[in-house]
Amino acid sequence: MLTGRKIVFIGGGNMAEAIILGLMREKAGADISVAEINPERREKISARFPTVRVVEDANEAAGWGELVILAIKPQQASGVLDQLESVITPDKLVISIMAGIPTSKIEGNLVADCRVVRAMPNTAALVGASATAVSAGRKASTADLDLVRDIFAMIGFAVTVEEKQMDAVTALSGSGPGYVFTFVEALSDAGVKNGLPRDVASRLAVQTLLGSARMLLETGEHPAILKERVTSPGGSTSAGLHALENGSFRGAVMNAVDAACRRSKELAGK
């Protein structure tokens, strides 16, 4: 699929590193280059991936590559796209993982026939367990979309959505690890409050989350059904769930996703 293909990352941050790790782990066979302005990041990437070509100049890297992955902050989009305009030709496929930036903005800054696919992975890519959504720009083909989905399937799970749904994806799965980490931290803190040693409370909280997620994936059951099975009449789980309802737990989670979705739209100037 990727054997001999030239993949360029514009930006060498944690997500770029995670994707490279996935490509290496799956023996994708691609030739990889990274353009990164930070010398410390360049040194780190070179040390971790000796076969990866690491440079400072984005134009040099993008001119060399066939698949150009924009792994930069959304606030950097306009400047970087203006810089790359002269080297992104129609034969290259541009893949953006910038939160909130629509394919139309990228297409508008580059050559008229530019092919763009947008992807939104999350930080679980670092352990090969990302949840990623991909959507096609105006000129991207079905084959382009399939290729990008296959790339991100190497670092976890990947699904295709319409681009108008990408702000919701950003808010749910893109930002979702932050919500989950906060929940696990609170669960561990509560264990300590009730007498458990910190290391025991933390391990129990993490394993509880992992086991619950596996149950959802492997049984295919609706969360409400699995919740019902663990909730005995008059039992401790029932009491805990009542306290969560009193604290508007579900409403708070939905509000968090709403707020993140609004911010994603703000980043795109919508």
Can you characterise this structure?
- The protein has 270 residues and is an alpha/beta fold.
- It folds into 2 domains: 6-161, 3-Layer(aba) Sandwich (Rossmann fold); 176-267, ProC C-terminal domain-like (ProC C-terminal domain-like fold), CATH 1.10.3730.10.
- Helices cover 53% and strands 14% of the residues.
- It has helices spanning 14-25, 39-48, 58-64, 77-84, 103-109, 142-153, 166-174, 176-193, 198-219, 223-229, 236-246, 249-267; strands at 6-10, 31-35, 53-55, 67-70, 93-96, 115-120, 130-136, 156-160.
- β4, α4 (77-84) and β5 form a beta-alpha-beta unit.
- 33% of the residues are buried.
- The model has no long low-confidence stretch (mean pLDDT 93).
Task: List its salient traits.
8-stranded mixed sheet; 270 residues; Rossmann fold
Portion of residues in helices?
40-55%
Query: Which consecutive residue ranges, at least 5 long each, have pLDDT under 50?
Result: none
Instruction: Kindly name the structural category.
Output: alpha/beta
Count of extended strands: 8
CATH domain topology of the largest domain: Rossmann fold
Main sheet specs = 8 strands, mixed
Number of domains: 2
**Which series of helices and strands comes N to C?**
EHEHEHEHEHEEHEHHHHHH
| Average pLDDT level | 93
Radius of gyration using CA atoms only: 21 Å
Question: How far is the N terminus from the C terminus?
Answer: 36 Å
Basic shape: elongated
Separate helix tally: 12
What would CATH call the class of the largest domain?
Alpha Beta
CATH architectural label of the largest domain:
3-Layer(aba) Sandwich
